[in-house]
Design brief:
Two copies of one chain form a homodimer.
Chain A (H helix, E strand, L loop, with lengths): L18 E7 L2 E8 L13 E7 L2 E2 L5 E2 L5 E9 L2 E7 L4 E6 L5 E8 L7 E11 L8 E5 H18 L7 H19 L5 H4 L5 H9 L3 E14 L8 E6 H7 L7 H15 L4 E7 L5 E4 L8 H7 L7 E2 L10 H15 L7 E4 L7 H17 L5 E5 L13 H5 L1 H5 L5 E5 L9 H7 L8 E5 L17 H14 L3 E4 L29 E2 L11 E2 L1 H23 L1 H10 L3 E3 L2 E2 L4 H14 L9
Parallel strand pairs in A: 1-12, 13-14, 13-21, 16-17, 17-18, 18-19, 19-20, 20-21
Antiparallel strand pairs in A: 2-9, 3-8, 3-10, 4-5, 6-7, 6-9, 10-12, 14-15, 22-23, 24-25
Helix pairs in contact in A: 1-2, 13-14, 14-15, 14-16
Chain lengths: ~600, ~600
Amino acid sequence: MPSTANVGQQESPRPLEPVALLAARNERESIQIALRPKVSWSTNSGIAGAVQIQSTDLCSSTGDRLVVGKSVTLRRVVSILGVPDALVPLDAPVSQINLFPGETSAIWVSVTVPYDQPPGQYEGQIIVTAMKPDAGSAMSCLSRDEKHQLYKELKSCLDVVEPLDDKPLEEAVNRAKYATSSLKNILLLPTFVECRDDHTSSDAMDEDNIINPSISIKLSVTVWDFTLPLTPSLPAVFGVSETVIEDRFCLQHGSQSWYDALDRHFEWLLQYRISPFFCRWGERMRVLAYTCPWPADHPKADNYYSDPRLAAYAVPYLPIQTCTDTAKDSLRREVEVLKSKSHWKKAYFYLWDEPVNLEQYDTIRNMSSEIRAYAPDARVLTTYYCGPTGAELSSSTFEAFVKVPGILRPHTQIFCTSEWVLGSREDMVKDIVDELQPENGEEWWTYVCLGPTDPHPNWHLGMRGTQHRAVMWRVWKEGGTGFLYWGANCYEKATVPSAEIKFRRGLPPGDGVLFYPGEVFSSSNEPVASVRLERILSGLQDIEYLKLYSSKYGKEEALSLMERRGVYLGPERYTLDHGPIDLMRADIYQACNFGTGIPFA
Amino acid sequence: MPSTANVGQQESPRPLEPVALLAARNERESIQIALRPKVSWSTNSGIAGAVQIQSTDLCSSTGDRLVVGKSVTLRRVVSILGVPDALVPLDAPVSQINLFPGETSAIWVSVTVPYDQPPGQYEGQIIVTAMKPDAGSAMSCLSRDEKHQLYKELKSCLDVVEPLDDKPLEEAVNRAKYATSSLKNILLLPTFVECRDDHTSSDAMDEDNIINPSISIKLSVTVWDFTLPLTPSLPAVFGVSETVIEDRFCLQHGSQSWYDALDRHFEWLLQYRISPFFCRWGERMRVLAYTCPWPADHPKADNYYSDPRLAAYAVPYLPIQTCTDTAKDSLRREVEVLKSKSHWKKAYFYLWDEPVNLEQYDTIRNMSSEIRAYAPDARVLTTYYCGPTGAELSSSTFEAFVKVPGILRPHTQIFCTSEWVLGSREDMVKDIVDELQPENGEEWWTYVCLGPTDPHPNWHLGMRGTQHRAVMWRVWKEGGTGFLYWGANCYEKATVPSAEIKFRRGLPPGDGVLFYPGEVFSSSNEPVASVRLERILSGLQDIEYLKLYSSKYGKEEALSLMERRGVYLGPERYTLDHGPIDLMRADIYQACNFGTGIPFA
């Protein structure tokens, strides 16, 4: 099943088909395998049976490989609030899961093509094998008592014969005889019953496995001669709450393990073509946003800022927490270090979230003035969904909203507006953009949060898969040059890493939560992605495809392709099925693949 | 949580409270324990952790007991089509289940009070203990290879030293030394790593268990001095498809294992105060219904017919399948044997399901005439929901429906009508009953099947728990003297016992399916009850309570109690919560408990 399907426990079975994927280099493509037991074969109460899932490497005819465990990964789709969402990693190349009677389980298979993978046709398979009830993951269980008993008996057997050197020969032999008969009894223990019969050779065991019923899913990936740019074309900046991390993992702000945790989150999110910023909320909607926890002159800072996968970074406006001169000094020093670097063009300052009145506008102006005193080309990002109250226009009108750039200029360069304001009126994009001065470096970015809601594209739990993916189609069509999301880990406070995930009250489920702590699902501390996060990645990859196509045929033609295939026509008109997405991607491949000439099957 | 709660995977946690139940002798009362992990503690991917569930006996101060495993049972509530429904038995007194992150699991606890249990206050507890991740059901796993390796090494160690007698002493000692060092190496295997440290004593292990976090639920049951009659006051006759049993369990009709399977089903259903009949459907709506698979003169037949828990039994009209004289003879013989027995008053003939035209009415008349020629006091049951087409009245009118007794008399004694016909018009009951001649043994029974539907009482999956239980409240209030249900095991055909359960197309989920084959959930062949079947039992038990109360205070007063407590006022007005049910039962207990004088806590 495609990656945009929400495969619930009640999903109906359908015929098994070979999987053929198209992928660029530096791209991830995913599909799902839905498993539903026709019969139960486990003797274990409540479980239909266990299956082993095994993936091979994907190999090309020239011997190149997409290696399982690295480029090919398998994850189990786990429901959150009854909706398939969390992707819990399975061991590679072989792992085992239980199937439940009358329940469909889904496995999320991802192929992540390395940046330098040779183009070509890669073939492999995923084999699902029903495990014999008695084999139990090829493990046989020994009760703790049984094992301790065995150990004790072997130990006492040893005690009898050791040391033999200091004993007279006769006694030594007698002791050896006694040990021998103990040993004989040990081998007659029920523990070894299965070892005593004819089936002791490992050949016989292999034969057992061969007669296990198993199905094989053919997986074929066409890697084509296009490489998604390491640096995403569209900066997608996503907030990660430092407070949530500190609380849940019990980390002291600024301790070594705090830095480690931030490091891990930063690194992990980069694979999703996302440019993370850490954030802490102040009074009202003040926000301290920073991509790098280290000062700009710290050797580690450059690792963060220079990472080619980072498309934009937030520079902390430090005085937000302490308003002393030292803090002001440190802001100046920070800016002075950064503005000399080549990555300075990726920098932005995110100072206030959704200002709603002139007092808040004034605060932004003051902070912005200070920043731009140190670096006149600094970019300030401001999010908003309405005009300010207290101005001449009623704040809730579209006119007041559209006039915000006039009020915030030159104190904001990135005008970041909520998609919710547009409703289904795509035509109003023109009104927004017309107010901007791109010649002076002004940009239009957008964001989604608790709005817009159904049927418009957003990332709430329970929305359709294509609705999740369509957020980025919308951004590309509307022409925004960046995107902001307020929070990727903003679930309710907890103080135990493995505590149950609760969404925040008052927010739609899934809003502000795109991944989960690994500890909730296993002993791993690696974050667990949501299917929504994977669909965000897919959307960001779609943007690179569309950009490639536009670069050759123009944006009008790319928009027309998107429409012709029925992928995305507007916030209320986009495909509900996966088919058109693959067709559009194949069209782009056909039109742009001048490299290897590999035909796409 | 009460037995009428549908505890889904998303059920919110709520405070733990002691459980106090009131139960008569020969009654079953059930509650549910909802478990939701606050944290994950398993190292096993996707599982929050394992808990051990242990129940004690319930003991009275005079030393009487309700024994766990017999009178106290625990079952896991398993979802069917996403709705909590199947009750899969857990081992007693201790079992173990896995909890999943963000998912609520429910345990169904039933106390079944034996017929001869001394009244009194019984106390016990259910203890839920989180299992240590490494303990894994107190089992440690050994891979098959590991175990075979261990066996092989011990065996070769033994081969070296056996026999020693025929060896010179020196060689014997050398061999013993060699074996000793092998043995030493074996004890250093990773398998025994946990045995080598300090924690080898079983005391230490017990201590480990003690520090496991555990919660205890106090369970107190007041058994009062009222015994539900062994023979249910209201005959509730339920169909069991012999075809479904034959297909799924691959049984030859009439073979020994076929008889065994029917036996098991008969016996198992009796515990639910249900009088089963096996059935096979003929052309159109002809039905062969029989409670006992043996001929009346077979020694086994009396075991079936004389069982005091059976309130009514179907006598097969044999010629339904073969229309020869032999078959006719066998009907006569069957009736002649049965009519001489004291249990004959429980007999009925169910010949045709829902006749809709005069031709079908004629068939019923012919069969009925034949039966009554052999036994003039035989009772024929006919189900219907409309008048016949082809008669003077339009068949779909209420008038035509109400006049059916006039057309079928004297060929039917039990007029069994669909509750669906009444809609919310309880007052129409009078019109139906007025047409009957109770002085000539005519009775009014009812049935539900695919209708009525929401919000009226029925047993479909996804309805409220009180809606399930209300079916019997309705019967009692309306005054019918019996009840029929068409099928308890009528899921889709399958030919493997453990095959997935599929509801029949075109029927509301759960309609015709009140229990599941045990093989779907474990290796047991004992049927798995649905929560709906348990609620049917509760409803049938409520009828006995109401009958007891009526016998002392009159039916009017009983109806008024039911209304006062808000339990049941009509098919669209019954309690949605459990509270009123317990209050009404306590009222009846207070008003009727003249025996022991035990106050109900």
